[in-house]
């Protein structure tokens, strides 16, 4: 038995695992694989280069294959578990989380109501009761609703509610009733179908009748189901008939809902239980860039390719790809899609990508998506609105989110909204950098080191960024503009010095702007180094060629912006040079995480200026094309003064270089 099999991976995948020379699962893999195989939603936070991609690709390839093969036992839908009476995870709002027993639920969102109904309703005659214990303080409402009613009970004429603030509600009319309730209070919900009455109790004290109800609620078609509604609160329900007795048993003539005669119970049923069709995809994996789409696709493909009968069909969906070809693949059938959110949402909205069978949604580098509030974050929201909570064959949706920098409010909020009791697989805490990455700072002080005056831009082969075109440069003075220009030249000199001093034969070099990247690429070439460049203005083909050239060793240096800093996995790269620091620590963690991967050592060198440096920050319409407005942005221009010393003080733990 291989080490991976001990964590639940099937022997069929061993061949692929050994083709990658993986002998033992990494720490994150040994926690994430069993969790995902066991059906959990997972938030995977582990250091850069720790094998997070394999941690989700392996179990997903396995589950998708088993489902297609029809050997995996799909969990029974609640309609099949006809004797178990519980809250119905197929009949709930998306952020009401229901645990495995179906008797505990929770909504952690502060400003939204999320509700659920039970999987049975009662009809005909008789007196029925169920009990609710408040487990987490917040707002909640409990009561009864028909299947046609809103899950926001009390807001229509199909549901009746009693809320924690001491109000009863029906048809959006809220009236004082009983007393308020809070954590540990036990509420009784009574429905008397013989006398058409609804009322509630609190800790055994019965309140008067709340509603005289219409006789239509006696009929099987429009009968009432127990229903609960939470906002930042949690509760436990007891329908009777289970192992726990009622805390406050109802009177002798009243029975728990679960004890109703079968002739009085209406089970919720899916209109039509449909079998899994074999053409619509089971999994989407979202990646932020085209490069990561390709990288993850290759990973999943490595595993999928060894699984036969049926073969797992994977496809990529990113900008620059041949859409006609992709549409043909989707039509003929596809199991796993790896793509960028914009493309995926586009196809869903135009009806070309069916979501009915989607069981897995994986969001890699989720914090980057959520930070892009008007772009990717919105697309992800749109995607989730289009996804069913359960697939066509009744399988619950599983959501997996990963990043080395997962700890932030937006991610927690996302988990509360879209994940169900997510398991945190958090190996090192906040913003973790592998112990195999050493990071150092090289101070750049153009007042102390005057060699830039001698060298100048042109003589070293570095192009002018023209940010100081309107300024008077007086070499030898400590004038702010002069010092800033000196910093730029000096950084160029230091890059070459570092490359030579450390005999770097492969390094990733990060610059702040696309223009800086282009100039650095040219500069390295002029100094007889092979270099390629990767940033958002390069075409898909150019980016692919650059990456391939760097991976296969044709190019020694890869110059890029932060846009492509994340996730890139190029083996055998020992060095990173930060020509300028990024704005935030998270991005720094991802940049330096390009080295020190898979337990190899890495060194990151950050050139940090001792003085402020003037840089382009284009606010203009052209986004910099032909822009010559070198005024500060506070004066309507397109430049900023960037203070690396201050930035670094805020977040970088460094050693001296
Ligand atoms: N079990 C394993 N044994 C040996 N190497 C592994 C194992 N799992 C993954 N790797 C290798 O480790 C490297 C990093 O893996 P991966 O790209 O999944 O890291 P990551 O955690 O996603 O990093 P990042 O946060 O930068 O995206 C890859 O080259 C991968 O092939």
From TrEMBL:
InterPro entries for the chain: B30.2/SPRY, B30.2/SPRY_sf, ConA-like_dom_sf, DEAD/DEAH_box_helicase_dom, Helicase_ATP-bd, Helicase_C-like, P-loop_NTPase, RNA_helicase_DEAD_Q_motif
Role of this protein: RNA helicase.
EC nos: 3.6.4.13
Originating gene: Cnig_chr_IV.g15820
Motif (Q motif): 2-30
Molecular function terms, GO-annotated: ATP binding; exonuclease activity; RNA binding; RNA helicase activity
Uppermost EC category: hydrolase
The organism's taxonomic lineage, starting at the top: Eukaryota, Metazoa, Ecdysozoa, Nematoda, Chromadorea
Domain notes: The helicase domain is involved in the stimulation of RELA transcriptional activity.
Residues annotated as domain B30.2/SPRY: 64-246
Domain of life: Eukaryota
Keywords: ATP-binding, Exonuclease, Helicase, Hydrolase, Nuclease, Nucleotide-binding, RNA-binding
Protein name: ATP-dependent RNA helicase
């Amino acid at each position: 038995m291989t080490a991976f099999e001990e964590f639940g991976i099937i022997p069929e995948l061993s061949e692929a695992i050994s083709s990658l020379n993986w002998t033992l699962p990494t720490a994150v893999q040994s926690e994430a694989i069993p969790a995902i195989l066991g059906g959990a939603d997972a938030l995977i936070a582990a250091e850069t280069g720790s094998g997070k991609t394999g941690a989700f690709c392996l179990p997903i390839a396995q589950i998708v294959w088993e489902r297609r093969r029809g050997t995996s036992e799909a969990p029974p839908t609640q309609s099949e578990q006809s004797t178990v009476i519980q809250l119905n995870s197929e009949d709930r709002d998306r952020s009401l989380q229901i645990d495995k027993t179906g008797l505990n639920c929770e909504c952690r969102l502060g400003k939204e109501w999320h509700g659920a109904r039970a999987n049975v309703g009662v009809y005909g005659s008789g007196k029925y009761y169920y009990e609710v214990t408040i487990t987490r303080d917040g707002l909640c409402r409990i009561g009864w609703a028909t299947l046609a009613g809103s899950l926001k009970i009390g807001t229509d004429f199909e549901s009746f509610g009693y809320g924690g603030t001491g109000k009863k509600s029906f048809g959006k009319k809220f009236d004082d009733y009983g007393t308020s309730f809070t954590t540990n209070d036990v509420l009784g919900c009574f429905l008397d179908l013989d006398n058409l009455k609804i009322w509630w109790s609190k800790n055994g004290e019965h309140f008067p009748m709340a509603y005289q109800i219409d006789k239509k609620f006696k009929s099987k078609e429009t009968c009432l189901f127990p229903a609960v509604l939470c906002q930042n609160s949690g509760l436990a329900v007891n329908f009777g008939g289970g192992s726990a007795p009622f805390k406050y048993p109802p009177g002798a003539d009243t029975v728990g809902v679960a004890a109703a005669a079968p002739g009085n119970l209406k089970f919720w049923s899916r209109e039509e239980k449909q079998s899994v069709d074999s053409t619509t995809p089971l999994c989407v994996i979202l990646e932020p860039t085209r490069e990561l789409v390709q990288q993850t696709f290759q990973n999943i493909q490595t595993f999928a390719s060894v699984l036969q009968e049926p073969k797992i069909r994977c496809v990529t969906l990113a900008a620059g790809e041949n859409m006609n070809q992709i549409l043909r693949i989707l039509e003929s059938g596809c199991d796993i899609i790896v793509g960028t959110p914009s493309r995926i949402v586009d196809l869903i909205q135009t009806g070309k990508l069916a979501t009915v069978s989607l069981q897995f949604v994986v969001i890699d580098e989720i914090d980057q998506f959520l930070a892009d509030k008007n772009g990717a974050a919105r697309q992800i929201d749109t995607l989730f609105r289009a996804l069913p909570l359960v697939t066509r064959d009744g399988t619950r949706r599983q959501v997996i989110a990963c990043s080395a920098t997962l700890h932030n409010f937006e991610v927690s909020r996302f988990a509360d909204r879209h994940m169900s009791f997510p398991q945190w697989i958090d190996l090192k805490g906040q913003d973790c950098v592998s112990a195999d990455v050493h990071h150092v700072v090289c101070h750049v002080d153009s007042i102390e080191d005057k060699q830039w005056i001698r060298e100048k831009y042109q003589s070293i082969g570095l192009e002018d960024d023209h940010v100081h075109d309107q300024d008077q440069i007086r070499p030898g003075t400590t004038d702010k503009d002069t010092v800033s220009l000196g910093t730029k030249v000096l950084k160029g000199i230091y890059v070459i010095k570092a490359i030579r001093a450390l005999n770097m034969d492969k390094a990733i070099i990060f610059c702040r702007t696309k223009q800086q990247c282009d100039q650095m690429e040219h500069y390295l070439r002029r100094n007889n180094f092979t270099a390629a460049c990767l940033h958002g203005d390069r075409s898909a083909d150019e980016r692919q060629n650059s990456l391939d050239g760097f991976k296969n060793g044709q190019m020694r240096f890869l110059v890029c912006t932060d846009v492509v800093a994340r996730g890139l996995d190029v083996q055998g790269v020992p060095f990173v040079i930060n020509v300028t620091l990024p704005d935030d620590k998270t991005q720094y963690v991802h940049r330096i995480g390009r080295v020190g991967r898979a337990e190899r050592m890495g060194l990151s060198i950050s050139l940090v200026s001792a003085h402020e440096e003037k840089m382009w920050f284009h606010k203009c319409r052209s986004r910099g094309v032909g822009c010559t407005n070198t005024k500060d942005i506070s004066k309507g221009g397109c430049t900023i003064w960037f203070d690396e010393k201050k930035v670094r003080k805020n977040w970088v733990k460094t050693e001296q270089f």
